[in-house]
Amino acid sequence: MPSTKSLNNPVIKIENIVVSAALHAEIDLYALSKNVKAVDYEPEQFPGAIFKVAEPKAVIILFKNGKMICTGTNTEANIKKVLAYAAGVISKYVISITPKSK
């Protein structure tokens, strides 16, 4: 009969956290991908731009409406660093600000 000890004390390790965020702005993904080497955008293939952040390592899928999905980090601190860095880069390519919904 298998031991149940491991079922009572599972080893938990956070490997990947997925976060959604919104910049509340319309983004020029064409200009962003043209000027930022880490951004790939092929709208014929997929409507989002892929932004690869080297340090801390993460990937952001960014949409024209400013919504983002960030994956690949394993701590909340790294998520905050990645999103702050990305927002700084992306801010140069804002077309318009959209009001925050309640």
Q: Which SSEs are present, and which pair or pack?
A:
Blueprint: H1 5-8, E1 17-22, E2 25-27, H2 29-35, E3 39-40, E4 49-53, E5 58-62, E6 67-73, H3 76-90, E7 94-97
Antiparallel strand pairs: 1-6, 2-7, 3-4, 4-5, 5-6
Structural summary, described in words:
This protein has helices at residues 5-8, 29-35, 76-90; strands at 17-22, 25-27, 39-40, 49-53, 58-62, 67-73, 94-97. With 102 residues, it is an alpha+beta fold. The protein has a 5-stranded antiparallel sheet. It has a two-stranded antiparallel sheet with strand order 2-7.
Gross geometry: globular
Low-confidence stretches: none
User: CATH fold name of the domain at 28-97, please?
Assistant: TATA-Binding Protein
Mean pLDDT: 92
Helix content: 25-40%
**Total number of β-strand segments?**
7
Name given to the CATH architecture of the domain at 28-97:
2-Layer Sandwich
Looking at CATH, the homologous superfamily of the domain at 28-97 is TATA-Binding Protein
Q: Provide the CATH top-level class of the domain at 28-97.
A: Alpha Beta
Report the total helices: 3
Could you say which structural class the secondary elements and strand pairing correspond to?
alpha+beta
Indicate the multimeric state.
single chain
Evaluate the radius of gyration: 18 Å
Distance between the termini: 55 Å
**Major beta sheet, strand line-up:** 1-6-5-4-3
Beta-strand residue percentage: 25-35%
